[in-house]
Amino acid sequence: MTAQPIPAAPDLDLLPSDVETDLRRSVRAVLAKTCPTEALVALADGTDEVSGPAWSALAHDLGLAALLVPEEHGGAGAGPREAAVVAEECGRACAPVPFLTSAVLATSLLVRLGAAEPLARLGEGTTAALVVPAGTGSAGAWARRAGVEVSGGRLVGEVRGVVGLPADLLLVPVDGPDGAALHLVPADADGVTVSTHTSLDATRSVSDVRLDLEAGTPLATGDQVTAALDHALATAAGVLAAEQAGLAAWCLEQTVAHLSERRQFGRVVGGFQALKHRLADLYAEVGQASAVAAHAAAALAGETDVPVSVAVAQAFCSEVAVHAAEEAVQLHGGLGMTWESPVHLRLKRAKADHVLLGSPDAHRDNLARLVDLPAPTPEAG
Amino acid sequence: MSEQHRSDLEQRVTALLEAHDPATTGRAEFLRARWDAGLAWVHFPEGLGGLGLPRDLQAHVDDLLAAAGAPDNAPERNGIGLGMAAPTILAHGTPEQHERFLRPLWLGEEIWCQLFSEPGAGSDLAAVATRAVRDEPSDEWVVNGQKVWTSSAHLADFAILVARTDPDVPKHGGLSYFLLGMREPGVEVRPLRQLTGEAEFNEVFLTDVRVPDAQRLGAVGEGWRIANTTLNSERVSIGGQAVPREAGMVGKVAAAWRAAPERRTHGAHRRLLDLWVQAEAARITGSRVRQQLAVGAPGPEGSATKLVFARLAQELSALEVELLEEDGLRYDDWTLTRPEKVDFTGRDAGYRYLRAKGNSIEGGTSEILRNIIAERVLGLPGEPRVDKDVAWKDLPR
Ligand SMILES: Cc1cc2nc3c(=O)[nH]c(=O)nc-3n(C[C@H](O)[C@H](O)[C@H](O)COP(=O)(O)OP(=O)(O)OC[C@H]3O[C@@H](n4cnc5c(N)ncnc54)[C@H](O)[C@@H]3O)c2cc1C
Predict the structure, then answer these.
(1) What does pTM read for this prediction?
(2) Which of A83, A151, A278, B356 fits as disulfide partner to B313, beta carbons 3.0 to 4.6 Å?
(3) Is residue B385 classed as helix, strand or coil in its secondary structure?
(4) CB-ligand 1 contact for B76 (6 Å cutoff)
């Protein structure tokens, strides 16, 4: 048996284009205005004065709901690189918007299936959510936990831990004896019950979805659905890495700023070498996260090396985001533990992002197959 | 030593239970009788609820009494009183102060909080700015200032307070230690909410609060030395209890692992086993620290106990959230509550993860503990100090 060569690394452009730099600037300005800390903190108390205006500014003013919608369906026809720029800013700002879940994940799925009509609606700001449990990183992972079936012409089942709701449209993958199928269901249809839980990350809600309604004709069936799911989940996972890199960069900057001001023992606390070294290490990590996320976006855009690039990006950036947020809390001292501080919002988001599209462990397991580093065989007996 | 002590203690416990059958004796009456029998805290002196015995024998007494269905003094409601104020008052108080404060403290009739940290003095506790000025005619001190992150201030009757009595000398020398009545005029407690949603700690504003000189602990200017007794007691009290294998956070994670075979991954398995071994090492080290304390020779492992405890609590609770997959994205409740007690392993996985972040900040941050180990235990040179020989009032702020 000859060993499979491991996939060679492509040579990708990792620097932002002028267009991407402009895009970043406008998204950052809009989110700075629409996502003040007090409003984000209030989300956990059930007061939402932020997600509507923030999404409206992104979706309508900047047209970002249509970012990945092809031009022939009325969209901007941009790709994963641009999406990654927007996500990075959403991560920095901890924006409570369905950009990742609707404008990236759901949209990519519909694009791959060539669903003209729903895409046109999404481009105009209609939101959609893929009804799979959080933690689903591939079609294979979904099939192992699929909770919905078609039985007697009805769509029946329950899916726990769905992110991206409320949304107008539900994309429901179903695994049946004849293979996979994708059903489109309006969220307000009879027979759809969405129960939203209190979530660890109040900027992104978690819901259980129960379905019991007429199935109708699926949008697509068979291997086409599985392939489209793999494509959309990989795209979203790559773009999520950018969100995580953005969040980590914010944590580093905020912590450096705080420790440059804070004085204890008659000294600026950031001048203690123990802390300088930690921040220098974190700087190295954050820089890597940004590069790795840019690499995943470029791989997705060029449709080259996607599986390895995305698995690396998720395995790496998930950990960096959590580490950066944990360092930020610790190095703010008592302040980092307070409700009014913007720091804990990032901690909660980073921790939730960590499992959102497959844990780093799951992505490392995936990588083990991709780069021929198999797990040890369990010993007999 | 301990065979004799143990059988002696067992006899005393039996005698207490015979004279005051828990089934027919009221809670308050039983606790008072327990105090009088010296079985409250056996390592305290006779007459002050103890018998002057080694500290580790207390657990045996507690077990015997619990097995007999006796009420306890609800120690979880007065952690700062029992773990920090009491040993400090015992070590530095006058006989009158012992008499006045220790009994109601142990009985849980008076709850205590710790007024140490301030907005400008956290890690650098010796920099506190809260002023205590002597009012000679009344023999009282007048206290003004602001404290912050004060756990349980909303429940407390008394506080241990570090305040500046002399701004004209370098910071460590100008501090004094007081026992301040939290119900006195001029004490204002405002809830401070934390990242878990609850308000366990508070801001405390002190405006012309009067403290009798009889409630000064130790000499004027000795506040720093006494505060260190408090802080050392706090750090020791964390490793102070004998715990069974898989107690605390590691037990929560192990249970989550056993409950969901379908969620297991190789990576999580490795981390779980690694942390399980580390938790076991911490448990064993804790036992040895306790044995050393009992024979009066605290070893350097003791200073590391809190450092390790905090790191393990954080890594274990982080793993638990991950093991729960989509359920880990949930949180039980963000409602602003005012908890009566702190339970690090209570509520759900998300709560445990968030609350554990405080473990490396409260009671001295992990960075400060590392400095203490490096400088006071390992004897490495200290950081250059710019504030050692400067009068407190002239320090840059
Ligand atoms: C849950 C909770 C409960 C608390 N309860 C109480 C209470 O009941 N009573 C009370 O008085 N206080 C309480 N505190 C306060 C706690 O003691 C302080 O928060 C802590 O001492 C740190 O002070 P700070 O918040 O001002 O942080 P800072 O001192 O500003 O520290 C900021 C960061 O810098 C680091 N740092 C500071 N100096 C150095 C140095 N020399 N070398 C390396 N790193 C350094 C710190 O470790 C920290 O990471 C509580 C805190 C928490 C989180």
Answers:
(1) 0.96
(2) B356
(3) coil
(4) no
